[in-house]
Structure formats: C-alpha cells, structure tokens
Design goal:
The complex is a heterodimer of chains A (about 475) and B (about 250).
Chain A (H helix, E strand, L loop, with lengths): L1 H19 L17 E2 L6 H10 L4 H16 L21 E2 L13 H9 L2 H8 L2 E6 L2 E7 L1 H5 L3 E4 H7 L1 H7 L10 H9 L4 E5 L9 E6 L6 E2 L2 E6 L4 E9 L7 E3 L2 E6 L4 E9 L4 E3 L2 E6 L4 E8 L4 E4 L2 E4 L5 E10 L4 E10 L5 E10 L4 E10 L7 E10 L5 E10 L5 E10 L2 H8 L5 H13 L8 H18 L4
Parallel strand pairs in A: 3-7, 6-9, 7-10, 8-11, 9-12, 10-13, 11-14, 12-15, 13-16, 14-17, 15-18, 16-19, 17-20, 18-20, 19-21, 20-22, 21-23, 22-24, 23-25
Antiparallel strand pairs in A: 1-2, 3-4, 5-6
Helix pairs in contact in A: 2-3, 3-9, 7-8
Chain B lengths: L3 E11 L2 E12 L3 E5 L6 H9 L4 E10 L2 E2 L5 H7 L1 E4 L6 E5 H12 L7 H15 L9 E2 L5 H15 L3 E5 L7 H14 L5 E5 L4 H5 L4 E6 L2 E6 L1 H10 L7
Parallel strand pairs in B: 3-10, 3-11, 6-9, 9-10
Antiparallel strand pairs in B: 1-2, 1-4, 4-5, 7-8, 11-12
Classes of the chains: A alpha/beta (about 475), B alpha/beta (about 250).
C-alpha cells in the first residue's frame, strides 16, 4: 500500500505542475521564410528521381534502385482499405527541397533562419542536456549532426543517411531496404524512389549507450513531401535508445510525409525507438516502420501520434530468433477532423518469442481513432506469447474509435490475449467530478492522465504534458467543456 | 455557524421544457428533510439544479447558501461552498483512481486543511469499513465496474470524507439490500449534526424508517404541494400520491 501512496503523491505533483505550466499556445505551427537553394519542382517522374540521385552524387546501385522503386510505386494502387487518401495531391507535391549545401557539425554553421527555427523548437537545448547525439533535418536534407566523442571513439556511427552512404557505403548497402523492401507497399516504394535524409545509426557489438540519440525532422515548405529513410543497427549485445521528433507548419495545401524506418536488433541487443509526431493538420503521415529482432534481443516501440491530418502507422516487429521479445506502446490523439489509423504488428517466427502491445487513443470532436493490428504466430513458434491491449477515450459525443485486430495463429502451443476498453469524458463525467469541487481543467486533466497512467512511466514526461495541453487547447477551442 | 440553504421560487428547465415551476424550501443545519413525490415530479431535477448540472437551465428564483448566492455558480464553486449531492445513478469515470479523486476533491473543498496523504487515507479506510467497501476499492477507477450498491456506498463515503454542510441524497436506498441500507443509514446518522442539513429525495418510504426526518415535503408537477412531518410519509405509503392536489 505504501507504494500506492507514493504514486498518488506523484500524481498530485503532476497535477500541480500541469496547473502551473505555462506553455505557449502555438509554438510549432510557425514557418520561416527560408528559400530552398534547390528544388525539383512539382510532380514525380524518372527525371526527378535521376535528378535527386545526381545532385546527391550517389553510387550507381542506388540510382538504379531508386528507378526500380519508382516503377513499383507507379504499379501499386493507392490503398483503399483504410482512411480516405484522396486529399494527397500527387501532381502538385514537391518531392525534393534542398535547404542549403551545408551539413554542419556546429550549430553556428547552420544558416541563421534555420538555426532560429530549431532554437524555437528547443532542439540545441535538448541536445546539450539529454542527448548522446543529434541530427537535424530541414525539409529534404540533414543540416546538422553531432555525436559525443566518447561514443564516436567506441565506433558508433550517427549521421544522416546521405552522409552515411558517402562515408560508410558498404554498411549502408547491407541494411538499406532489407527489412522494408520497396515492394512492401506504395508508400514504401515512394520512399525508396525519392528518399532523402533520415538517420543512420550503427551501434557496434557490446556498446551500451546510456543516453538517447535524437533526430528532429522539420518540414517547412508548403505542399512538400518529406521522405526520410532511417536505419538503426544495434549489433550483438548492444543497447541503444533512439528518439525522433517531427513538426511542420500548417498550410492550406496538404503535405506528405512518407518515411521508412528499419531497425535491426541483433542477438542479445536491446533497442528502443521513441517517436513523437506533432505534424500540422495539413500533413498526410504514412510511414513504414519495421524491426528485425534476433535471438534473445528486445525491441521497444514507443510512439506518440499527436498531429497530422491522416496517419497510417503500424510499427512491426519480426521476431526472428528464439526468445526475441517486443513491446509496442502507442498513444494517439485524433483531433477534430483528423484520422489516426494506427496499430502494431508482431510476427512470431521462432520459438519462445513474446510480444506485448498497448495502444491508447484519444478522440476529440469528430476525430477518429482506429486500432489496426496484426498478430501472426507461425507454425514452429512454440510457446510464444502475446498480449494486446487497446484503450480508447472519447471526448465528445461524436468522437469515434474502432478496433480491428487481426490474428493469424498457426502454432497450437502459442498463447495470446486481447483486451479493449472505451472511456468517455462527457458532460456527465465532468459534472460528477466538478460536483465534488474539482475545476473543469482539473477534472479533464485527471481523466486524461488517469487514462495514460499505466503508460506514463514509458512515455517522456514532456510528452504527457504536451498531450494534456493539446487536449485542453482543442477542448477550449470547441467549448466542449462546461 | 449553523448552515442554511434557501431555495426561493426556483424555476428550471431541461431542453426548453419547464420542470421546476417555483420551488420554495429551506434546509438548515440540524434538520432532516425528506422530499417525496410521484415519478416525473421533478425530484431528481431539483438535485441536479442545486449542484449546477450544465444540462439544466435555471429560469428563475435563487439558491442561496449561508448568504452566498449560488444561482449562477459553477458545480465546483457550489461544492466548495459546502453543497453535496449523492447522485441517483453515479457515473463511472474510467482511469480516475478513487483514492486520488477523493484526495483531490478534499484539497479543493478544504484548502485550509494540511492533512497528509497517509492521514487522509487512514481516515478513508476507517469509513470504507463502515460503509462496507473493501480497501482494494481505493486503487480502482471511480465507479468503474461497481455494482449499484457499491456506487451508493461510495457516494456516502464521499459525503463523510468531503464534509459538506448541506447534503442532498437522491434515492440513496435504491440498489441497496437491507444490510447495506442499515450500514449507509448508520453512516448518515453518525455524520448528522447541528452543523449539517439533509434533503433526502425518495420515492418510497423505505429509507425513512431508518432515518426519521422532521420535515416531509411532497413535490408534484414542479412545485411543493404539501409540507408535513413524518406522518405525511406514512400516509403516502398507504394511500400513494393521488390524494395530493396542487
């Protein structure tokens, strides 16, 4: 019981902090007036792809790979089984925007206007305080990267993928589009064709990095696409925590974000991938994220989807070796007029593998949150275990959530379970709490924090605060409360 | 100071339909009032209007507690002034832990009391035992998965923990079996004092055998039709409400 007490004390403190927190209202939807030094213009064809490859002075295999991927992209239809994607304007999207020739190791060498943008987003400050390394991408290219010397000396590689392709071509070739082939889906094919930027992180055998490494993605242009490609390799027995943050200004014309994230967790290694996405409501967010998890290795996905117009995201773990484990935690906020079609995939391909998936969603106004998941247990994945938990919180009467779990179980000794709950912050719930003396703010914060309680330890504190702030902001805008 | 709730010519509507048509009622500390009446008379509406439920619109009259006009105040301001409603059907609030909720509510209604978390929880456990709720309820979500009876016990627990001055109990006996009703009635009687006034809303006379009110009022068609003492409730039990004319 004493343990319980200290947790309640923590909650009290958190509520106090939230009450006193004074975060500015619109602190990420601004845009600067920086003009790109090079752009391929609108639309996509062979010439654009060749142009991208040429300007990057890539090896021939990559150029051919891109062109092949373009063919695959063109041959695949836009998926219709999920949210409405008709708002993506393929013709009028700009597929490549180069901000500058610079890719600095020092913030002072980053062009002032771009530097100011990252300053406003708190990126350099975060780097100084919490990070072992940092990459910053602006539109299509990385503009800054750094890695603490102690890790560089141990053989860790952390830079944008373009630089890595120049400096470590063989290493990149070994992993590029292996876990996520261009044939996987239309958006993966698109990324393989026009990818630019993204991070390459290699952690050598036995190296355990105790501080996280972060990449911050910023989209600035209107009707642009960002197609970063990220590869994380945690070699045998290593340990790493990689974080991504993403924001963009809000425009009338839609933008497209279609990333690939490939993570290779080798034998006995531990990798954690955290991403907090706060795209503006004019962004279609369609990334493909996948991890290969080898024997006795552990892969953790922690995701926060706050922004975007439509997000389709299902981070997958392929449990390839015995005793491989994965945890997948995703928190989605479906604000007014937006759709979050998110979930997770766990493929158990070896004996004694285990997966745990927790998906939490909050829907505001006509926001729609969908959980879509795949659990596959192959024949031979003996004694494997899985547990899936989906919790939804609906803020208004017209808010919706749906759950589409899909199970393919071919192994009789495997065990799995599903749980789902739906809660609501309606007038009745708020009035009940308020009738006991809680203010409107306190009551809704309490419901939101209570809803996130069991995942609070896993998600960054700033994220919980940001989530709470966004919900309040949306509710105030709508006058949904009171 | 002995508390006093003055309801004067109170009129209220739901979705433009007038339900309360001029209610006059005064409840003072040390007094136990019963509000009876047929279904649809507006009894529960009165409870909800008194605590400021946003779905109910006050169209006339006033609610004054200890000289402070609460008519236009928010539910939390009324709670902090000392008003409490034990709901007829308390709603579940998933994710909000019972103990944290009560503690936060107490801090809001009694900011001057610097009681520690441990002391507060110890006090809570004593009363949980009295109303017959297991300690394990402390870490459960508010009313989530509670039976009807457990919800009612929790309402009474909140009452004794939050120490309000004027208490409205809306059909507190529904969902309670005979033994539970006795526990709840005991707790109400223990809490009852010169400094606390009760308004017990009930359709039947059942709970009034456990708690004897000095004043009985009958609400009919949005107005108090008859005032009396406990004999009135006995007559209603035998004859129903048909004999009462507005």
């Amino acid at each position: 019981m004493e343990v319980e007490y200290s947790k309640d004390a923590e909650m009290e403190k958190l509520l106090e902090d939230l009450k006193n927190s004074n975060v500015k209202k619109e602190d990420w939807e601004f845009h600067d007036n920086y003009k790109p030094v090079y752009s391929t213009g609108n639309g996509l064809n062979r010439k654009v792809v060749e142009e991208i490859s040429e300007i990057k002075k890539e090896p021939d295999w990559m150029r051919r790979f891109r062109l092949k991927a373009l063919e695959i992209f063109e041959s695949k239809p836009v998926p219709t089984w999920g949210p409405d994607l008709s708002g993506i304007d393929w013709e009028n999207t700009n597929y490549y925007n180069r901000p500058d020739e610079v890719n600095a190791n020092n913030w002072d060498d980053v062009p002032d206007e771009i530097k100011e943008t990252f300053n406003k987003l708190g990126v350099p400050e975060m780097e100084q305080k919490y990070l072992a390394g940092s990459v910053a991408q602006y539109d299509s290219e990385g503009v800054y990267h750094s890695l603490k010397k102690v890790w560089e000396d141990k053989g860790v590689v952390f830079m944008d993928l373009d630089s890595a392709l120049r400096e470590h071509p063989d290493l990149v070739k070994d992993y590029f589009c292996k876990a996520v082939p261009a044939t996987d889906n239309k958006f993966a094919a698109l990324n393989a064709a026009v990818w630019s930027g993204g991070s390459f992180l290699y952690v050598p055998k036995g190296v355990k990095i105790d501080m996280p490494l972060q990449t911050y993605f910023r989209m600035n242009g209107e009707a642009t696409g960002q197609f970063e490609h990220t590869i994380v390799v945690a070699d045998e027995g290593s340990k790493v925590h990689y974080i991504e943050g993403c924001t963009a200004p809000r425009y009338d014309k839609n933008s497209l974000h279609s990333a690939i994230v490939e993570i290779y967790v080798k034998k006995n290694a531990q990798a954690r991938y955290t991403s907090v996405q706060n795209w503006s409501k004019s962004v279609y967010n369609m990334p493909t994220k996948r991890a290969w998890v080898d024997e006795n290795a552990n892969m953790e996905w922690v995701g926060g989807s706050l922004g975007s117009k439509v997000t389709m995201l299902y981070p997958s773990s392929y449990l390839r070796g015995p005793y491989a484990t994965t945890h997948n935690l995703n928190v989605s906020l479906a604000g007014p007029g937006t759709v979050k079609d998110t979930g997770a995939k766990a493929l158990h391909l070896a004996p004694h593998t285990s997966s745990r998936i927790i998906a939490k969603s909050i829907s505001i106004e006509d926001g729609k949150a969908i959980y879509r998941g795949l659990l596959r247990m192959n024949k031979g994945a003996e004694h494997s275990r899985s547990h899936v938990q989906c919790d939804a919180l609906l803020i208004n009467d017209n808010s919706t959530s749906y759950t589409y779990p899909h199970d393919e179980i071919y192994e009789p000794t495997a065990t799995f379970g599903h749980e789902a709950t739906v809660g609501r912050i309606g007038t009745e719930e708020l009035t009940y709490l308020r009738s006991r003396g809680l203010s409107e703010d306190e009551a809704s914060s309490m419901i939101v924090l209570g809803f996130l309680d069991d995942v609070m330890k896993e998600i960054p504190m700033e994220f919980a605060v940001e989530m709470n702030r966004l919900i309040k902001l949306e509710m105030n805008k709508l006058g949904a409360v009171g | 100071m002995v508390p006093e709730l003055k309801i004067k010519d109170l009129k209220a509507s739901v979705e433009d339909k007038e339900i309360l048509k001029g209610v006059n009622l005064t409840v003072k500390g040390g007094e136990m009032h019963a509000l009876m009446g047929p279904n649809g008379a507006g009894k529960s509406t009165l409870g909800n209007v008194l605590i400021g439920h946003p779905n109910y619109k006050i169209t006339g009259g006033s609610i004054v507690l200890d000289g402070i006009d609460l008519t236009d105040k928010t539910p939390e301001e009324r709670a902090r002034a000392g008003l409490f409603l034990a709901f007829q059907s308390p709603v579940a609030v998933v994710g909000v832990k019972l103990s944290t909720f009560l503690r936060t509510a107490y801090r809001q209604t009694h900011p001057e009391d610097k009681v520690t978390l441990t002391e507060f929880y110890d006090r809570m456990k004593v009363h949980m035992k009295k109303v017959g709720l297991d300690e394990s309820f402390m870490s459960r979500s508010v009313n989530d998965g509670f039976s009807g009876g457990e919800r009612k016990r929790f309402e009474i627990l909140q009452m004794v923990m939050l120490r309000p001055k004027i208490i409205i109990l809306d059909e507190i006996d529904s969902g309670l079996d005979v033994d539970a009703l006795k526990l709840v009635a005991d707790e109400i009687r223990d809490y009852y004092s010169e400094n606390v006034g009760f308004l017990i809303i009930t359709h039947y006379q059942r709970i009034l055998k456990n708690i004897e009110p000095q004043f009985v009022h009958v609400l009919k068609d949005g107005k108090i039709a008859v005032d009396g003492d406990n004999k009135l409730s006995l007559r209603i039990e035998e004859e129903g409400y048909d004999w009462i004319k507005n």
